Amino acid sequence: RDLAAGPEMQFGFQTVTEEERREKIYQVFESVAKKYDVMNDSMTLGIHRVWKDILMHKMNPSPGTLLLDVAGGTGDIAFRFINYVSSVRERQLQRKLKHHQNLSWQEIFESYQKDKFNSLGDSQVVVCDINREMLKVGKQKAQHLGYSEGLSWVLGNAEELPFDNDKFDVYTIAFGIRNVTRIDLALQEAYRVLKPGGRFLCLEFSHVSNPLLSRLYDLYSFQVIPVLGEVIAGDWKSYQYLVESIRQFPPQEELKAMIEDAGFFKVDYENLSFGIVAIHSGFKL
Amino acid sequence: GRARPSHSEPRGRDGRGGKKKEEEKGWHQLYPGHIPTSPLQKALLAAGSAVMALYDPYRHDMVAVLGETTGCLALPNLRDKMKNHPEGYHILQERPRIRLSTLDVARLQGLPDGSLGREYVRFLEDNKVSPDTRMPPKFVDDEELAYVIQRYREVHDLMHTLLGMPTNMLGEVVVKWFEAVQTGLPMCVLGAAFGPVRLSTRKLQVLATELVPWAIRSGVNASCVLNVYYEQRWEQPVESLREELGIFPPP
Predict the structure, then answer these.
(1) d(CA A26, CA A17)
(2) Cross-referenced CDD domains, in alphabetical order (chain A) (predicted)?
(3) In chain B, what are the domain boundaries?
(4) What are the C-alpha distances in Å from B118 to residues B103, B110, B115, B122, B210?
(5) Labelling B158: which of A58, A248, B133, B201 has CA 20 to 30 A away?
(6) DSSP secondary structure code for residue A204 in this structure
(7) Is A31 part of the contact surface with chain B (CB cutoff 8 Å)?
């Protein structure tokens, strides 16, 4: 290969240059965007929803939180965040109402107009994705589901985020970091844009240590998932890439080390579904 | 900057990933577009594509996949029929492709009415179809058989012309019955059997009483339609070709 083209790396099981990898991955997500959600449900039999719910519960955001959801494409994490802080906020307001002797007339007035007055408590989520098609699908979904407040969409690269330092309370990347070509840069960027005290959360496919389960998981991944891709989305190759890229991604401990290398403290991980998926967490101090 | 995480080695950690998969999969590609598949994958594809094709009739790609994954007996059969016939053998050797870029549409339009070329182009225009929309094969694990199924797909529009059937649901079902008898491809049989599900009762009646019996009789009587080098017979009148092949005149 031409040396000037750059170092070689993996795109699934193929060996490619960095530039080629970025391009191929862009094309994969361009191709899958419209059927992304359907395929997620089919491949995981809906379990991906539970994983994302667990991530949100782990985050436990309070109203007023500023979240950056990177590789947030079709908005799954962002919508959950909005739902979560809305319900926390609602409970806050209800608690206040119960002790109404502590409320001013202004506050009582406000509580009757919940929809218009700060139902998110100033919480905000910025969805950042490198792929236009995925963002497009996300925006359409938001419109369809009625999400508008506290939500913004930004086209950007996880390796080089278009945000200032020390901006966000929480940074999430769900099923996205696997597709980043320079994971170390993405982690550094995550560190940079988080406020001191901010939290890094990563939800990603990981390594199954149980040998029997691992074999079943491999069998399912390689035999069933590309078939699902072909039948549902007419796209075998993107889903072949998906299962291969999962195998190429660092396992739990290695990812933990990488996160620590970026400067995060109290780095920890939690396995979900026997390690099929893991949530890694770290803090910027 | 920092050292890059080393991803240059396919991971063998879980034992089943990495090099083994690379050997099994990508690099037995027999022709451009070929995706090698295991027997289990083929079975799953066959089942999945059958269901999806019924559920969403606009998924022509699913019909194609069904044909490829179930054709393991019929395709070699067809190939042998071609091999043992002088014209068919010729086709296997030269591997002609029917594509808009290779067809001289202007010349075909200039041919007399009733000739194969003129009627074929008329069929394409009337029904607003093109031979270029045929799916290339992906899941056939033999390069010659991949050509055979490709040829079958490209010749499909000529079947419509010879049988005088339009591309609506009814016409397609009739052609499928004919092709089912001619080729024995399970996909044709399934298409012929399940296609009518979406037709109105009136059409079903016509189908059952006139069209299907005619299609079957013609299919049985006719010699193998893949053994005709259509590209060398554009001038031949359709009726004469029908007679030569043994296709009875349409009702």
Answers:
(1) 14
(2) AdoMet_MTases (cd02440)
(3) 39-245
(4) 12, 7, 5, 6, 27
(5) B201
(6) E
(7) no
Distances (CA, A) of A142 to A40, A80, A176: 18, 12, 20
- Give the chain A residue whose CA is nearest to the CA of B20: A13
Q: What is the CATH number of domain A29-284?
A: 3.40.50.150
Q: Which of A214, A228, A258 sits opposite B5 (nearest CB)?
A: A258
The ipTM estimated for the assembled molecules is 0.79
Each residue's pLDDT expressed in tens, for chain B with a length of 251 residues: 334 343 333 343 333 334 344 444 445 789 999 999 999 999 999 999 999 988 887 888 999 999 999 998 999 999 999 999 999 999 999 999 988 888 888 888 889 998 999 999 998 888 888 888 888 999 999 999 999 999 999 898 889 888 888 888 888 889 999 999 999 999 899 888 888 887 788 888 888 888 888 999 988 988 898 999 988 889 999 899 888 888 888 88
Tokens of B240: 């004469």
Q: Name the residue of chain A whose CA is nearest to B50's CA.
A: A231
Contacts of A244 (CB under 8 A, 6+ apart): A12, A13, B17, B21
Q: What are the CA-CA distances from residue A50 to residues A47, A142, B23, B176 (Å)?
A: 5, 20, 36, 45
3-state secondary structure of B1: coil
